[in-house]
Design brief:
The structure holds 2 protein chains of 2 kinds. Chain A is built from 9 helices and 10 strands. By secondary structure, chain A is α/β, with parallel strands linked by helices. In chain A, the strands form 2 sheets. Chain A has a 6-stranded mixed β-sheet with strand order 6-7-8-3-9-10, sandwiched between helices. In chain A, strands 2-1-4-5 form a 4-stranded antiparallel β-sheet, with helices on one face. In chain A, helix 7 (183-198) links the parallel strand 7 and strand 8. Chain B has 16 helices and 2 strands. The chains are: A alpha/beta, B mainly alpha. Chains A and B meet through helix 2, helix 7 and helix 8 of A and helix 1, helix 2, helix 10, helix 11 and helix 12 of B.
């Protein structure tokens, strides 16, 4: 069997007396789009927050490319190559597109201007931001120095996705990328998700939108009562099946690789 | 599968209509939105225009008396201290905070510089360094309370303003150090009061210091990662944190730097008034906030430039000197400045509404 890119084993997380994760398994394979669906309160966000370093599990392990990892902060997870596109996008509206893409990892000029005067390499970052956006087919945006707040919702999502894939990432987590968007912009973002997949990056997609999930996902992880209920192939099941598994109205298929 | 083709078709049919609406909007508001966008990119443009207009208008009324190098540089001398404190205030306001303790830090630091020299007989240069360090320490208290205790900056600095000011009076025992004594024994304290002349224009080193501080801060805010982080923190702290900015560190650095600049203003203050007086600079906090607001820095954080607050300070300077030369009641200055503040905030609100 091929090594999964990201895997968790028996994650447990309590919030007081509430059990958010109850020995939860998770597996993301290379180059795939894995959707996570589940009812509200099923523990999806807790799982995602643990994977992206925002929360620490009470018990259990996380493996990235087969090696066990421990993240104390989102910054550490990001350094290890796990990028998250938050539902809020985490963009600074008044800053430019280029500034936003490099926020927190700015590049300085080479030589003494950079080391002593800390001069930023504005031109280099603008060029690189432009390249990254074009690579994702997003260069309908004219001016890279434009403030992000002047962009539409879909364009902002595009910037956030481009930032997530720009820096040698290994896994991209997208939290509800189409929730705030109109029909047409959702379409653009779904195409964008496919572009990212085509570039070879595996994606974890959290979404409430069943048609979107069934359209792009390779596999669907169904979360229920703090654990993975099953993983289904969207080709073999219908949306109403998925909803029935999610809510407990129907027995899930047996999982051969879940011990 | 049937479900996945549905949204696609729907999108294709509505796509054309969407674009048409957007284009229509653009044409309709072309000029006004263009102006809005330009002001959005260069927020210091509004105060600069107001500054030039006010100089021209007073110049027309008062003629050569006002338009002379001497009068214009007199304005610079008069705003030097407010200008420096406003630079510190701008930094804090850019992070969506406010610093009411700037005046107290300035006065207390100047008192420390004076008392360390005269009470303990330290060399003036060393006492100055102690005063600057004290300013940083006071700024650090503000910064830690704001960043780590998560208290609102207004409340924190309302408290520290009283604390620093009371400490200043208690420590100095309300005692003023006379100008002659300083000139005799510790001339370094009055360094920034020294004047030099270039063709009728009179400058003090204090004016040069103000311009240098503004230049350095403009560079740091625009061309270093730290500067970008300051704007990001002021804009949306949660987003900045998630994007990998260490927001607490940035906040503390801002308050420490503001404290240092205020202490520096305290040194310049000694040069300006000659003596070291614990009762001086009482209005510095209100005057600095006025300069910052007129200078187009948004009180909601993340927008504006230090250059703007320099223009803001100069506008106040031009109004005060101009109206005094005209010979009106000085209350007219406050009346006009009050109107300018409201105008500036209105413009800021309008610029913030900019969108695609």
């Amino acid at each position: 069997m091929i090594q999964p890119v990201l895997q968790t084993h028996s994650l447990v997380k309590h919030f007081g007396r509430v059990v958010a994760l109850d020995h939860c398994e998770f597996e993301l394979r290379a180059g795939e789009i894995l959707a996570i669906i589940g009812d509200n309160g099923a523990g999806k966000s807790t799982l995602i927050k643990i994977i992206s370093g925002a929360l620490k599990p009470d018990d259990g392990q996380i493996f990235l490319n087969g090696e066990q990892v421990h993240f104390a902060s989102p910054l550490e997870a990001r350094k290890a190559g796990i990028e998250t596109v938050y539902q809020s996008l985490a963009l600074s509206p008044a800053l430019s597109i280029a500034d936003n893409m490099f926020l927190g990892r700015e590049q300085r000029k080479k030589g003494w201007l950079g080391s002593i005067f800390r001069l930023l390499d504005h031109a280099g970052m603008a060029q690189s931001a432009r390249d990254k956006l074009s690579a994702l087919g997003l260069m309908t945006i004219q001016n890279i120095g434009q403030a992000v707040e002047t962009l539409s919702g879909g364009q902002r999502q595009g910037i956030a996705v481009a930032r997530a894939v720009a820096f040698k990432s290994q896994v991209v987590i997208m939290d509800e990328p189409t929730a705030a968007l109109g029909v047409k912009e959702s379409r653009r973002v779904l195409e964008l998700i496919r572009e990212v997949k085509a570039s070879g990056l595996p994606i974890v997609l959290i979404s409430h939108n069943m048609p979107h999930v069934f359209e792009v996902a390779d596999r669907i992880h169904i979360h229920r009562l703090g654990r993975r209920l099953c993983v289904i192939d969207p080709q073999e099941y219908s949306m109403s099946d998925a909803v029935a598994f999610m809510t407990g109205a129907k027995e899930p298929p047996l999982m051969p690789n879940d011990s | 599968m049937p479900p996945q083709s549905d949204p696609q078709n729907f999108a294709k049919t509505t796509g054309g209509a969407d674009e048409a609406v957007v284009e229509f909007d653009d044409q309709k508001h072309g000029f006004v939105t263009g102006l809005q966008h330009r002001l959005h990119q260069t927020p210091a443009a509004v105060p600069l225009i107001v500054l030039i207009l006010s100089i021209v208008i007073f110049g027309l009324f008062l003629g050569a008396k006002f338009f002379a190098p001497f009068a214009l540089t007199l304005i610079l001398q008069q705003v030097a201290i407010v200008g420096i404190v406003a630079a510190a205030q701008s930094l804090v306001i850019l992070t969506a905070g406010i610093d009411l303790s700037v005046g107290a830090i300035m006065v207390f630091s100047s008192v420390i510089m004076g008392q360390f020299t005269f009470r303990y007989g330290m060399p003036a240069e060393f006492a100055i360094a102690c005063g600057l360090a004290a300013g940083m320490l006071m700024g650090a208290v503000n910064g830690v309370l704001v960043a780590f205790m998560r208290l609102p900056p207004f409340i924190v600095t309302l408290g520290t303003w009283q604390i620093f000011l009371a400490a200043n009076f208690l420590y100095s025992a309300n005692e003023t150090i006379r100008s002659q004594d300083i000139a005799e024994k510790a001339a370094a304290l009055q360094f920034f009061g020294e004047k030099f002349e270039i063709g009728g224009a009179v400058f003090t080193y204090g004016v040069v210091a103000m311009l240098l501080i503004v230049a350095v801060l403009t560079y740091a805010l625009k061309h270093t990662a730290w500067g970008r982080h300051v704007y990001a923190v002021g804009d949306d702290p949660e987003a900045a944190e998630l994007a990998g900015v260490r927001t607490k560190r940035v906040l503390v650095s801002i308050y420490v730097l503001a404290g240092l600049i205020c202490a520096f203003a305290g040194w310049v203050l000694i040069g300006r008034i000659g003596s070291v007086s614990p009762t001086s600079g009482q209005l510095a906090n209100i005057e600095s906030i006025t300069a910052v607001v007129i200078g187009g820095i948004s009180l909601f954080g993340g927008r504006g430039s230090i250059l703007g607050s320099l223009f803001g300070a100069l506008i106040v300077g031009v109004f005060s000197l101009g109206l005094r030369m005209v010979g009106t009641d000085p209350q007219w200055t406050f009346l006009l400045i009050g109107m300018l503040i409201i105008f500036a905030v209105t413009v800021d609100q309008w610029i913030r509404k900019v969108s695609a």
